[in-house]
Structure formats: C-alpha cells, structure tokens
Amino acid sequence: MTDTLSVRVGSNLYIGSAHPIVVQTMCNTHTSDIEGTIAQCKELAAAGSQLIRITVPSMADVENIAAIKNRLRKDGIDTPLVADVHFSPDIAKAVVPVVEKIRINPGNFHPDHGRARTLFREFLEICKKYDRAIRIGVNHGSLGRYIVEKYGNTPQAMALAAMEWVEMCIDAQFYNVVVSLKASNTVVMVDAYREMVRLMKEAGTVFPLHVGVTEAGNGDSGRIKSAVAISTLLQEGIGNTVRVSLTEPPVKEIPVAQFLAHKYSDAPAPAGLGQREEYMLEAACRWGAPLLKHEIDDIPIGDEYLKDEILQACRRRFYKPEYIACPGCGRTLYNLEETFNKVKEATGGFKNVVIAVMGCIVNGPGEMADADYGYVGEGRGMVTLYRKKEPVLRHIPEDEAIEKLVRLIEADREG
C-alpha cells in the first residue's frame, strides 16, 4: 500500500493508507426532492455506503442539502455527506458549512486560470475555518485548455492538472484532501493514477486517492470494466476509497465496491453479491492487471462471454460497441437507465465504435472524451447528438433521438 496522509471526513471516518478502503456512492435523485433524497440516503447507508455524495447544482440546493442532512441526523443516520459542485465557486463556498466534504474541480471555477486559482484559495480558507475535507476531482475530457494545449488530453495532463491544485493545498497548509483522476478508458485511468502517485511522491506529500472508472455503464460490462481497472490499482497499493459508477440504482454499486474493498483491505465483506457476480469479479481482478500491463494477450478460461468482456474492458479486443454512460445524478433530466438500455439494444450490431449516453449537457460533452458518438440529454424532453466532440443534431425529441443516432452511425459508415 502506498503510504498516504489520513483524511478525516466528519467526526469518525478516515480515508488513507492506515485505514481500510472506504466504500462510497452517489444519489441519483434531484436534490430538490428532499424526501426522495433522504429515502435514498437511508437505503444507501443501510446497504453499507460509508460516504454519500449529493449533487448541488444551484444555490437553492445548498438549503436543500442542509435540510436533507438535518433530517438524516435527526433520524440517526450519521453517514457523512459530500456535496458535488461543478463550475460555481460561490456554491462551493456556500455549501462548506453544511456538509462534511466537498467535491470540486477547481479548474472549472473560472475560465480565466489565474482567477480560478484565486477563487480556489478563497475556498480553501473557508474549508480550513470549518474543518472540512475536499476531493479534487479531475476527469479525462474535462481538462483546462491551457493543460490540453501543452500536454494533450493524456494521463500525464490529468495528473499535472490535479497536481497544480494539490500544490496549492500544500502551500495553504490544508491537508484534508482526497484526489481523483477518473476516466471511462481503463488504460487512461490506470496510467493517470500511477502518474499522480509518482508526482505526489516527488513532491513529498501523498494524499489519499479516490479510485473509480467514470461512466462505466451497467450490467456485467460496467462491473467488469470497473473491476479490471480498480483492482489493478489496488494491487499496486494505489487507492483508499472506491466508487463503482453504474448506470443503475446506486444501491447496486455498493456490493461491487465492497467486494473490491474487502479483497484488498480489511474492509467488511460484501453483502448481497450473487455467486455468478462474485465469480465474474474474481476473474476480472485475476486477469485485468496482466492484460492492462500487456503481460498476456489472452486469458485461459472456457467462458467465452466472460473472456470477451474482460478483454474488451482492458481494451485488448472489442467484440461489441464500447459504451460510456454516466450513472446519473440530480442534474439528469430524463430516465437515463431506461434510455441507455434502449440505445444498447438499437446499436448492439455495430462494431468498433464507442457510444456515450450522458445525463446532462453540463458535464456530458466533456466527460465523453473517447466517444465516437454521444447522446446527451438537454432537458425538457430534448437531446443533442454528437459526433466525437461536435454537436451535429440539436433539440431532438427523445422519442426520435435513438433512431436518429442509429441513422447517423449508418450514414457515416456508408459514406
């Protein structure tokens, strides 16, 4: 295990190399739905989530998450809450007194990089005042222009982008920091975390790492994709808290994360994991690392379906479309899980193509960096279709969007 600092979240949860791997997840309810979010938090806590993240997309939701937290504490649920904030330093600052931890990407605090740094310093001072923890979350595809222009959209660029904010925390003598560098591409994700560890060791301060594959999808594919990458890092002693992002009800993420946490630390054993699912995860953990490291080119198992899934998750052989799908959150404005399954059904016959299904226009375009095509919800029953990073069809009614996506792919292949 890579030696890291210990980060305290709330009164008694610790993340770091001296502690078992922490399991966490994220609500997919709208934060304005206070009763629904409270109910889901209770379900997730009962299932074993040690940390629960909730999106805070507006100032009104700062009050909503405060009400949610107060009700949970009144009802005896003391699981720490994490506010998920994008783009707004004002919301990030306002929510600090309310929750135990705040997840931000300081690079999107302001288009001007110098101004973003100033706003981040101000944010850290408030976090110090209230003794809060933060997660600096940098995702592949959401890097600042200044980094991409210099280093490209690469694992090195991800690590360097995160390292700038880490160094600012060190300069501010603020150490209650967790770092993540997520990607939907398992190779990029693993390489980014390795580079981040190298840079932090070089700097002399190693913060705990939150590991996960973003937009992993659902079903067997999402579980295997997450397992091959996360287990590769955990085997190398990299990773102190885990989230398995699935486009399913978030309670279904928890047994998979518990399996990984238990396998690689003294964390509690998973509950509710089926025999087939455990067999599948064991195989993904057994063969993921040697495939990702190119130590082997094939795996000696007779289950051809499982072999195909593991090889595709490791990006060694593709037998079907590669799907990127976010797990959904309070910013999602349509039935993401149902739509994703319909997209898979309609496009399953294509090969050598990466298709993304994203919940919102806020983060979707940036987070689908590896996709050939994207289906991104605009809200109000409308969808934008992307080719690579370019929107090609806007404001399409949901009931027409999948058919138009298929036609777009077919037209490109015929052309």
- Choose one word for the global shape: globular
User: Which secondary-structure class do the elements indicate?
Assistant: alpha/beta
- Relative helix content: 40-55%
The percent range for strand residues is 15-25%
Span between termini? 51 Å
Order of helices and strands: EEEHEHEHEHEHHEHEHEHHHEHEHEEEH
Mean pLDDT: 93
List unreliable stretches of 5+ residues: none
- Neighbour order of strands in the largest sheet: 8-7-6-5-4-3-10-9
**Rg calc:** 20 Å
Tally of DSSP β-strands: 15
Number of helices: 14
For this structure, the quaternary state is: single chain
Q: Major sheet: size, sense and barrel closure?
A: 8 strands, parallel
Keywords:
415 residues; eight-stranded parallel β-sheet; five-stranded mixed β-sheet; 14 helices
Structure description:
It is a single chain. The protein is α/β, with parallel strands linked by helices and 415 residues long. 45% of the residues lie in helices and 17% in strands. The protein has an 8-stranded parallel β-sheet with strand order 8-7-6-5-4-3-10-9. The radius of gyration is 20 Å and the shape is globular. The protein starts with 6 loop residues before the first strand and ends with a helix.
Write the SSE topology.
Blueprint: E1 7-9, E2 13-15, E3 22-26, H1 34-47, E4 51-55, H2 59-74, E5 81-84, H3 89-95, E6 101-104, H4 113-130, E7 133-139, H5 145-151, H6 155-171, E8 177-182, H7 186-203, E9 210-211, H8 219-235, E10 241-242, H9 253-264, H10 275-292, H11 304-313, E11 322-325, H12 336-347, E12 354-358, H13 364-367, E13 373-379, E14 382-387, E15 390-397, H14 398-414
Helix pairs in contact: 1-2, 5-6, 6-7, 7-8, 8-10, 8-11, 10-11
